[in-house]
Amino acid sequence: MTIQRVPVVIVGAGPTGVTAATRLAQYGVHCLVLDRWPGVYPQPRAVHLDDEIYRIIARLGLADEFAAISRPTLGLRLVDRRLRTLAEFNRDPEHSVHGFPQANMFDQPELEGLLRTNLDRHPHAELRGNAEVTDVVTDGTRVRVTFTDRSDGRLHQVDADYLLGCDGANSLVRARIGSTMRDLRFQQRWLVVDIASEANLGQWDGVHQVCDPQRAGTYMRIGPARYRWEFQLLAGETANDFDTLDSLRPLISPWTSTVPVGELTLVRVAEYTFRAQIANRWRRGNVFILGDAAHLTPPFIGQGMGAGLRDADNLAWKIAAVHRGTLAAEVLESYELERKPHTRSMIRLALGVGWAMTGGGRLGNAARRAVLPRLRLIPGLRDKVVDSRTPALHRSALVCTSRRPRGLGGTLCPNAPHGQGRRLDDILGAGFAVISTARPSAADEAALRQREVSVLVAEPGSALEAWLRGGRVTAALVRPDRTVARAGRDLAALCAWTATVLRPAAVQSDAPGRATITGVRTECRTALLTDPNSTPVRPPRP
Questions:
Q1: Range of the domain at 315
Q2: Is the pLDDT of residue 174 over 80?
Q3: What's the average model confidence in pLDDT over 466-482?
Q4: Which of 5, 45, 274, 323 lies at a 20 to 30 A Cα distance from 103?
């Protein structure tokens, strides 16, 4: 048996796996994606993503293509069992930190088709379907993956420097690294219903959350002629009890009472058990787990798939830099240090939102009817409810945080327009960047250029200048994933710190159009930090 060798093997070709593969390929890292299915799973699952995830999709080169298959939603409406509005939170389509609509509905098979077609454009990536991974063994220096070609039954092996387990909730890779899921004590059975119809349902074009402790529910329009309902199942009920339009009619009639049954087409009815879980370890050596293999988020805030894409975007550029030899291998510890607390926060938020909408029995229901209609009157609360920004990353070798409440370290920089209407991401490219209110000295700028660090001056009165001012800084070092690595008031000191922790780029691109990325040393030296509110980070231990 001939054993193939590639730098990175990715197990699982869902959105997380293909996103990781695309990001690696953009940096010129060869990767092999193995998936047990021959093509995209045809049934719709995830239906929502926010502007932060849209921004990641745009960095994959798919902004226009995704816009063509998605539809922005107006916001969130909280209703009672009779669809009487308790509260409504509208989104401003013109306001977005990340440059895209804050809430977007889509069909997952369509999105996965786009992702795979886009991956085919990258010669550094290969996707192999009908490949069922059966074993993973690592000796500390290499990872050997055994898989079966399901089309002919033949056994194959491939050696890799890194393995990314994007193989879902029943992850084999997670089991092989000795990781287990920690149960966050949430489990509910829900019915998921997808219906197609050309008829006009005459409903408000946003998400309807039914705040009913007896049977919580959700309604949303996915596309021009596609609709999704989710209902909590009662004890003793199964999806088989609702496998026809006639049996579903009592549940969906508040939205479809004016539409004849003949104008509705049942696409799918499925039962899902929603869980809240997070893996106790996300890495062993050069084997990592991402997406549902590492965490499960209840759907109440629509962040399940998005969390996996955040994992991929966080890890891919780090592996690319380590593979090139320009980033110390210890920095890979930052993946779990950054992503795990962030994911835990999002899971807790989802649990809190779910309970606030449906928990507490009859007393909770009475409280909601009394309180929810008045929420919109509380100054600033509406903006908080529809704000899609997520928590800052915890400090790591690649994030220096601040003690200030509004510190920028660990947060995402805005994808603001800058000059001739171009967005920040289009200007900065794929590497590190210093954003400041003034241009560095010639010597500092030359040192940054040696390290492939872009420099962007925020013009007075611009959105970027307002962002820096809001963080009470004048300069920020932004990572390839657009996370702020460090920010401060002294530009010269920030440049000196950057020159210390980033190595001069010694490895050049060997592929036309390939993105490059410089390396980072894993240290924050206190002697170079002139901002007394900055917190230096000790490098992780090997």
A1: 4-70+105-182+277-346
A2: yes
A3: 97
A4: 274
Q: How are strands ordered across the β-sheet holding 71-72?
A: 48-50, 103-105, 71-72
Residue 84 forms part of a structural domain:
no
Residue 511 pLDDT greater than 50, yes or no: no
CA-based R_g, the chain, Å: 24
Closest CA to 494 of 528, 521, 524: 528
Residue of 134, 109, 130 lying closest to 38 (CA atoms): 130
Q: Residues 332, 429: one domain?
A: no
CB neighbourhood size of 474 (10 A) = 19
CA dist 456 and 104 (Å) reads 30
For residues 290 and 426, state if they share a domain: no
**What's the pLDDT score for residue 507?**
44
Does position 510 have pLDDT exceeding 50, yes or no? no
Residue with tokens 């994808």: 415
Torsion of CA 240, 246, 252, 258, to 10 degrees: 170
DSSP string of 477-495? EE-TTSBEEEEES-HHHHH
104-156 pLDDT tens trace: 999 999 999 999 999 999 999 999 999 999 999 998 789 999 999 999 999 99
Query: What pLDDT score does 109 carry?
Result: 96
How many domains does the chain contain in total? Answer: 2
Of the two residues 92 and 278, the one the predictor is more confident about is: 278
Asked if the structure places residue 204 within a domain, the reply is no
Domain annotation covers residue 436 = yes
Q: Does residue 408 share a domain with residue 512? A: yes
Q: Measuring CA to CA, how many Å separate 492 from each of 1, 112, 305, 444, 497? A: 57, 45, 40, 7, 9
pLDDT at 514: 46
In a domain, 197, yes or no: no
Nearest to 325 by CA among 524, 59, 516, 541: 516
Burial class for 506, CB neighbours closer than 10 Å (0-12, 13-18, 19+): exposed
Tell whether 405 and 328 lie within a shared domain: no
Q: How many Å separate Cα 531 from the centre of its chain?
A: 31
* Percent helix / strand / coil, the chain, rounded to 5: 35, 25, 40
And the tokens for 259?
A: 């539409």
Same structural domain, 340 and 396: no
Segment holding 272, helix H or strand E: strand 265-279
User: Who's near 392: CB < 8 A, 6+ residues apart?
Assistant: 401, 407, 409, 410, 411
**Strand pairing class (85-90; 484-488):** unpaired
